[in-house]
Amino acid sequence: MTIRSLSVAFAALAMLAASAFGAAAEPNARVKDIASLQAGRDNQLIGYGLVVGLQGSGDSLRSSPFTEQSMRAMLQNLGISTQGGQSGAKNTAAVMVTANLPPFASPGSRIDVTASSLGDATSLRGGTLVMTSLTGADGQIYAVAQGSVVVSGFNAQGQAAQITEGVTTAGRVPGGAIIERELPSQFKDSVNLVLQLRNPDFSTAIRIADVINNYASRNHGRRIAEARDAQAVVVQKPQTADLTRLMADIENLVVETDTPAKVVINERTGTIVIGADVRISKVAVSYGTLTVQVTETPQVIQPEPFSKGQTAIQDQTDITAEKTGGPVAIIDGPDLRTLVAGLNNIGVKPDGIIAILQGIKSSGALQAELVLQ
């Protein structure tokens, strides 16, 4: 955490707060931006495969016996005899292949996959993933992956030096998987729609239901939405409505969102994020630091001429203590802009702002949740 990074971050925060409150804009968003369809969730796929064509950076077959077993099984399936001794080539690596099956994916469409090394391979650069089946949680095969592995990192080494940038043991195969099976559930067969809020909040859920009901009253003559809890809003399908067109109309409705008051602090990076609804009760703040400096200045003492003495070193230590502290300041934050301005006007160094916020929270004057990362 550096003073410069804190100063820049808080200066940017002050400018953002000033612009936001100066415009007095309401936090409005479309339904599609704050909620997702429960039937439209992703599904995770996983598989085990081999990457071939590596330039001596693959698995050593002694340390990774499963790689050799997989190679022999693959060659036998291709009708090639594997009788003989072990191979010493290092151009093959065993990998785990993962992917996300998007909602409403149809057979024949392509998705990206990620290949990650399982053995002691040093790099997957230049390799090709051979045909790998990808299964879901139910054990069914939903996609088959194959293609060239794209690795962003690199590794170069010589006899006495080595340089590595990024991760070379994992890569992506863009569009490398072809979907072979579609999900069993069909969107058109749904009786109702369930909207899940990405940031659960009771106020936002109620407002989404009200906006949808206003739309349904005008177009369908009745209310169709109900907020089940802080995260889910259930929408009943009207008998004469097309479900796809209904969802297209609902996801473009504009809702005034609401979020809880939070202050997020990352002490490692020096990042401070203060929500717009954060309030601070009137509190007095004083911040001071104590700096102790120890300076060693050894001196060389020479003996007198012809005294048969010896040269000696005499230690000399100077210790100085400096205590700095600003005046006691009164902070009262009715909004974000006033709070940021008050913290900047205390007259302390930016690295003390985190300690001040923690102290204000401990005193009970910070009317928000303090999140430490």
UniProtKB/TrEMBL annotation:
Any Pfam family the entry gives: FlgI
Described function: Assembles around the rod to form the L-ring and probably protects the motor/basal body from shearing forces during rotation.
Subunit structure: The basal body constitutes a major portion of the flagellar organelle and consists of four rings (L,P,S, and M) mounted on a central rod.
Family, similarity comment: Belongs to the FlgI family.
Superkingdom of this protein's organism: Bacteria
Any one GO MF annotation of this record: structural molecule activity
Chief place of localization: other
Phylogenetic lineage: Bacteria, Pseudomonadati, Pseudomonadota, Alphaproteobacteria, Hyphomicrobiales
Species this protein is from: Rhizobium daejeonense
Signal peptide segment: 1-20
Record's subcellular location: Bacterial flagellum basal body
Gene Ontology terms: biological process: bacterial-type flagellum-dependent cell motility
GO cellular component terms given for this protein: bacterial-type flagellum basal body, distal rod, P ring; outer membrane-bounded periplasmic space
Name of the protein in its database record: Flagellar P-ring protein
HAMAP family on file: FlgI (MF_00416)
Keywords for the protein's UniProt record, in alphabetical order: Bacterial flagellum, Cell projection, Cilium, Flagellum, Periplasm, Signal
